[in-house]
Specification:
transmembrane helix; CWH43_N; elongated
Length: about 200
């Protein structure tokens, strides 16, 4: 099986490195072009205007592909471990993979439809990406606990669950605060009225 082949462990590391580079490179281009303020802009703001929008879209789509590969490897790994231990139903593992793939699709939507060009599609993509991502990592944390102590340590499981809880809180805060405002442009001046619903 693919997950038992030596060398596949580089894929998650490549995913993290590539995704980080995508955010950093588009941020640097956006700041140097004067399209965003340097102090903590929204991620989507750094990929809205050309030329950074092309770099952002291309790199995030590659990140989504790497995420699909990473999730599939994790799926195969759990299936292989499950052959001898039977710690989780195969249907649960498949369901978790499907949720993860939904998140990757959301990433592709975010990368393809810029924030200001098609805001509703971009926002739906972000909601699917982040929401599915939170559910995916939570399900993976639960699977990790079920595989203890043979395939995981409790320390690793606790770290995964802590990341899941933090992600869930961040997702809820994102939804709450995003529902309070409606951004129709990036450039604004202090004192300018912001349309809110």
């Amino acid at each position: 099986m693919l997950c038992c082949m030596p060398g596949v462990a580089f894929v998650p590391a490549l995913l993290v490195s590539w995704s980080s580079a995508a955010f950093i490179i588009s941020y640097v281009i956006a700041v140097l072009a004067g399209h965003v303020e340097p102090l903590v802009p929204y991620i989507s703001d750094t990929g809205t205007k050309p030329p950074e929008s092309g770099v952002f879209g291309f790199m995030i789509n590659i990140s989504a592909l790497l995420a699909v590969i990473t999730m599939y490897i994790r799926y195969l790994l759990i299936e292989k471990q499950n052959e001898s231990s039977h710690f989780v139903r195969s249907s649960c593992n498949m369901f978790t993979l499907c949720i993860g793939l939904m998140g990757c699709t959301g990433m592709g939507i975010v990368a393809t439809f810029q924030e200001l060009a098609v805001p509703s599609v971009h926002d739906i993509g972000a909601l699917v990406a982040f929401g599915s991502g939170v559910v995916y990592i939570t399900l993976q944390s639960i699977i990790s606990y079920k595989s203890c102590p043979r395939w995981n340590t409790y320390f690793v499981c606790h770290i995964r669950m802590a990341i899941s809880v933090i992600s869930c809180i961040a997702f809820i805060l994102m939804v709450v605060f995003a529902s309070k405002i409606s951004m129709t442009k990036i450039d604004w001046t202090p004192g300018e009225k912001v349309k809110s619903y």
